[in-house]
Design a protein that fits this description.
Number of helices: 3
Shape: globular
Radius of gyration: 20 Å
Order of helices and strands: HEEEEEHEEEHE
Structural class: alpha+beta
Strand order of the largest sheet: 1-4-5-3-2
């Protein structure tokens, strides 16, 4: 009986398998609301789509490349009608790297969206309709703050992260959110990281 219960729990805990869509499908959609994982929800032809790199209210061309349990996932490939809070990302790896999701959004709007996500989650999951959520406390400097970074290292010694939505390697020579000390170290790490599959560096102030 214990084995049966364990098996049932294991089966319930498994996430539905994600399917790749080949070739990716492009659709024009109007984005609705920000989801808690950083994508924006859109609806098209009876489908729900989570679209990365958008803003609520924008009309965009989205490229759908994944599906899981009847829900579709993709990314913005063209902005038809941009929101006023859309900005140019500071990082040249943005959109390829699997790290940052919101560099295309002004920092002030990011703070407002984070607060709204908390409000939405409390209402939908916790069923708290009248809970007061204070404004998000921002950082004096939203860049160069991260003092703990985990890099992936290739056998030939290159150091970097992984590409969005994959396990493929992406060499990184500069990370805008990492502490300057880590970025100063990166050129010395490149070409010498092959001894370990992952490298973790922490800068303590």
């Amino acid at each position: 009986m214990w084995k049966d219960t364990l098996s049932e729990r294991t089966e319930m805990s498994r996430k539905p398998r994600e399917k790749r869509i080949e070739p990716p499908e492009r659709v024009t959609v109007t984005l609705c609301e920000m989801a808690f994982e950083g994508g924006v929800i859109a609806h098209e032809g009876g489908r729900t789509i989570f679209v990365d790199y958008g803003l609520p209210g924008e009309t965009v061309v989205a490229e759908i490349d994944r599906e899981r349990a009847g829900v579709f996932f993709g990314r913005v490939v063209e902005v038809v009608d941009a929101d006023a809070d859309r900005v140019e990302p500071a990082c040249g790896y943005f959109g390829e790297c699997g790290g940052c999701n919101w560099q295309h959004i002004s920092y002030e709007r990011q703070l407002a969206l984070k607060r709204q996500i908390v409000v939405d989650q409390l209402r939908r999951i916790g069923r708290f309709d009248d809970t007061t959520v204070l404004p998000t406390v921002g950082s004096a400097n939203p860049w160069g703050y991260r003092n703990h970074v985990r890099f992936t290292a290739k056998a030939r010694g290159e150091v970097g992260f992984v590409r969005r939505g994959t396990h493929r390697f992406l060499r990184i020579d500069d990370c805008k959110i990492a502490d300057p000390w880590i970025n100063e170290l990166l050129p010395r790490l490149q070409g010498h990281g092959g001894a370990r599959p992952d490298i973790r560096r922490r800068c303590l102030e």
